[in-house]
Amino acid sequence: MKTDKTRLLLLLLLTLVVGCAMYEPAAVPAGAENAATQAVVRVESPLRWNEAQTLHRGIKYLKLEFDEPRMIKAYLVRIDLKTRGLKFTGTGRADRWGEPMLDVTNRVTIIRTRRQTTVNFMRQLRKPVAEGGRGLDAVLAFNSAAWEPWEKPFTHRYAYPYGLQISDGVIINKGGGGGTFAVRKDGSAFIARRIPQEQHGELSLAHTGFGVIMENGKSLAKPGDTALAPRMAYGLSANKRWLYVLAVDGRQEGWSLGANMHDLVAILRAAGASDALNMDGGGSTSLVHWDESRGRPVMLNRHDERGSARSVAMNIGIYFE
Questions:
Q1: Contact 206, 165 (CB under 8 A)
Q2: Which helix (H) or strand (E) holds 160?
Q3: pLDDT digits over 55-77, tens only?
Q4: Which structural domain range is residue 193 located in?
């Protein structure tokens, strides 16, 4: 019996030895190496607006930096929409509005706006009327809608912005869209998935983005919305008093890798937003304020080490009367 037990123990030991020798680590699940991409940034909530920098009357600014789940640099502005004299404006119709673009191939694209960097947009707003500007006390500007054409050489002078676009009560484009930030003529603001045509006449401004990503505090970001990129997003508080404008740097190794939709929701929710809208991001992302001490517009976010900026189809400006 002892011999049989000994043989059995030896057989079990041999099986374990062979099994360990043949063992191979399990393959890394597809996408596991992108865990930092899929993870959501953890944000202190609520954000400490009492420690924020005051850029201008009614406008506060926070620069946010995260190391986990990846390197992220974000720039967040909160605007008090109840501030006396605060007004909105936006990119207007191009001089050749309604004409076809002659430098676009394979399709007919109609001119709606003339592309312009957000910095130059602010300069134009502040330039005296006698010098061809609008003579406004503009203090903040940021890009909004995506557009076409977007094809080589990417230097088209004019653009066709997607979705409903209204600036200063003038309709730039009547298209639909995935979500719109709008300001009524009475100054009240809202974010909506769609605005019926019969309400367009009530609006002084409406700029459509890619889609609503938070509604009544609930995230609408999909599980697959994990792509990282530079981002631009807007948020609005439940009482519609506070507008949040969020710019995130991206695609810059060692500086900021970018954000996904879930990150945008997390940051804007911590800021105080109840509704949020994803706007045109990537290289278009531009958040600019007027620096009174320097006497010029200053870009808060960073496109790259060179400080370059893209000419975009639509910008929103905030000024004081």
A1: yes
A2: strand 158-161
A3: 999 999 999 999 999 999 999 99
A4: 2-320
